[in-house]
Amino acid sequence: MYEFHQRGIKMYAKILIVDAIATNRIVLKVKLAAAQYYVMQASSVAEAVRQAADTPPDLVICAVALPDGTAVDLVRRLQETGANSAAPVMAVAPGISATARLDLLDAGVEDVVMDIYHDGLLLARVRSMLRAHNAATEWQIRDDTTRALGFAEGTQQFAGVPDITVVSTNPTLSARAIVDMRALIAARLTSSLPDKALNPHNHTTTNADTRNTDVFILFADTANAEQMLSLLSSIRSHPATRHSAILFLYPEDAPTLAARALDLGVSAVTYTQTDPRELAMRVRKLMLRKQLADQLRATVRTGLKAAVCDPLTGLHNRRYAMPHLARLAQRAGTAGRPFALMLADLDHFKSVNDIYGHATGDAVLVETARRLRENLRAVDLVARVGGEEFLIVLPGVGLGDARRAARRICRHIGNTPFDTSGAKPPIKVTVSIGLAIGGMPSDAALAAEDPDAAARVLMERADKALYAAKVKGRNCVTLDRPAA
What we know:
484 residues; alpha/beta; five-stranded parallel sheet; 47% helix; disordered N terminus
């Protein structure tokens, strides 16, 4: 999650609260501000739309009924005006009926919260929605870059029949849920006990095979809570299921269990006693979201790799990196999000080629690329932009975290010699890094007017910082001074 500062205090994300009742806004603002979120307030749909246009929020929390409309009206207005339409909307609706709740979800509200007084669950919901929003935004930026280069295909409908696994310690409960959903959704439905959920050959249906599960539905209760949370962690860490969507159902009197599940990475939570129509609606939304995420990842991974990737290291090349940087600068300027840019250059690399040969030099470059990827997030960009020069972009990362990441990379490259896989002894290689921070208010005008120029300016700043690191003695990180 990105950070910015207000009056010297580190803040995380921007949240817009929309409610006609001032007391409700104040209660929510106190809770969110204490968690270091930047909070904006509005009392009507019109005011909220104006606020979102001026300062795009990362999350909107609103009352269902407003003086000039409803939460659904707000969702539609934000989409119509283009004012950060991707920001999720959470509706607060104490005592709402199941039918009204279903109508809100069907109209585009991301989630409906009936009780905001359990602070742990409220903040866990906020964290989960912000994580999902930020990840989707960063992947979308990558997709935009690929499309601008002419390498992406159009969005397709969900390919084939999706696989859904219902997990419960009560087989009767699983069976009833499957019967209910079969009448409402076209999917391949299987049931499983928790200890068999990651082994598709042990599903209770004969149709189970080695296909990956698209959506897991976990029925949790106070008796099986730890078992379900352990399964959740395994799903998120298993290579075949880490991108699966997870719907977590919990007893209404166990909000702490739901909060723990959200922080462990479930996609959505709802009560165990949920209307089957809502269950089916949530599953359809999760399937579509997973489809889009899978397509974006596939596009980034495979979109004419020969044209946008370095054949030696497998990293993106300059042709991909510069348009990506330009689009990130443009979006960061609009949203007020910082991001970090590093230029990393291996020290005295020419001597490696001269002494050990180019084959060994290539091996060092390949291992450097592996170490860089190993130390960065999936949404971070690593590109080889020169012989031994690498560009690293960290979306949503401010100065403090960027500096720590750069120093960690320096240690990871320099502290472990490179094994040349031959009779030669391991080679010690170090790296110098120039660091610049983009997305600052001073960058916004240029990024909006000419994103390509903004990207070039930021590259020049990082390059000057890299030169300073070389002069300083190499094997270190130097910050571009205007960004300090």
